[in-house]
Each structure stands twice: as structure tokens, then as C-alpha cells.
Amino acid sequence: MLANIIYLIVFIILAFVLSIAVKAITRGVEAKQVIKEEKNSELNKVSENQSLEITDQIKELKNLYDNGVLNEEEFKKAKEKLLK
User: Fold this and answer.
1) Of 77, 57, 75, nearest to 65 (Cα)?
2) Residues 3, 45: Cα–Cα separation, whole Å
3) pLDDT of residue 16
4) Is 75 exposed, middle or buried (0-12, 13-18, 19+ CB in 10 A)?
5) Are 65 and 75 a contacting pair, CB within 8 Å?
6) Which pLDDT score, from 0 to 100, does residue 20 have?
7) In sequence order, which residues have a C-beta less than 8 Å from that of residue 58 and are 6 or more positions away?
8) Three-class secondary structure of residue 1 per DSSP
9) Over the stretch 9-64, which tens digit does the pLDDT of each residue have?
10) Which of 7, 46, 53, 79 is most buried, with most CB under 10 Å away?
């Protein structure tokens, strides 16, 4: 009888520890996923900003070309350099 009570107590403790472990693992996986999503979001923002910067620079080059500051060859070289 005493042995059965001890087994029951050990089983309850084991179940409690396992439930805590499962919760911890689940939280860790969720946190890792959130971090990954944040990194992807940051990379997308950086990519968008770089695209906008390149677009603005090409517009500025076009403006310089239209105003006669750059000739056609200089404009093409500068544009190719920006797009690489």
C-alpha cells in the first residue's frame, strides 16, 4: 500500500516536470520563429530602402543628363554602376 502511494506521488511529480518541459520547449520554438520573422521583416525593409535609394539616384542622374551636365556615355556608365 505504501509503495503504491509512493509510485503515485512519483508519477504525479514526473507528469508535472514533463508538462513544464513541454511548455518550455513550445515557448522556445515560438520565440525562435518570432525572431526569424523579425529578421525577415528587417531584411525586407532594408531591401526596400536600397531599392528606393537606387531609384532616387537614377532619377537624379536622369535629371543631370536632361540638364546637360552628363553626356549619354557618362549617364549610361553611372546607371550601370548603380545597378550592379
Assistant:
1) 75
2) 63
3) 96
4) middle
5) yes
6) 96
7) 79, 82
8) coil
9) 999 999 999 999 999 999 999 999 999 888 888 877 777 777 778 888 889 988 98
10) 79
Cell 520573422 belongs to residue: 37
What are the residue ranges of helices labelled H in 1-84? Answer: 2-66, 72-83
What single DSSP character describes residue 67?
A: T
Closest CA to 21 of 29, 10, 35: 29
pLDDT given for residue 21 in this prediction = 95
Nearest 5°: phi and psi at 70? -110, 140
| Alpha carbon distance 57, 63 (integer Å) | 10
R_g of the chain computed on alpha carbons: 31
Task: Indicate the number of domains in the chain.
Answer: 1
How far is the C-alpha of 25 from the C-alpha of 39, rounded, in Å?
21
